[in-house]
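Milestone 3.1: sequence recovery, worked example.
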């Protein structure tokens, strides 16, 4: 897009800030231009956040029913999915999936719990076996 076509929709998600985007100048070269948001981007972000919140609620219900783990809840609260959490921890996705079940979660070693805590940016105590599902 051209510099003069850069969206300026004053999106609430930008909190009155501006974001740097690349656009073409009059000479055809790429330059950095400031944008105050784009309504389409705001709608997509809002939908994604709502989806993660719904997944976190469902994970909380599974955890309370003994069918899930606090790890799954934290994963969605931190707006991650299995591939993202696997990449952040350096684990295979199939191992992360196994740890989302109560049985796999109870078998986590302290080192793996610490690894998950670092990837999720939380205290390891939230990942202890008797921890309640995070709010």
């Amino acid at each position: 897009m051209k510099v003069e076509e850069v969206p300026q929709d004053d999106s609430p998600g930008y909190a009155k800030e501006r974001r740097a985007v690349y656009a073409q100048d009059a000479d055809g070269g790429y330059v950095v231009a400031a944008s105050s948001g784009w309504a389409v981007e705001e709608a997509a972000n809002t939908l994604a956040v709502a989806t993660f919140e719904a997944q976190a609620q469902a994970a909380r219900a599974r955890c309370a029913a003994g069918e899930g783990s606090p790890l799954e809840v934290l994963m969605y609260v931190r707006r991650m999915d299995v591939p993202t959490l696997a990449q952040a921890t350096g684990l295979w996705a199939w191992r992360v999936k196994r740890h989302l079940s109560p049985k796999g979660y109870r078998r986590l070693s302290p080192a793996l719990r610490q690894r998950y805590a670092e990837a999720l940016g939380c205290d390891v105590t939230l990942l202890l076996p008797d921890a309640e599902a995070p709010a």
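Helices lie at 39-64, 70-77, 82-89, 93-99, 102-106, 110-120. The first strand starts at residue 19 and ends at 24.
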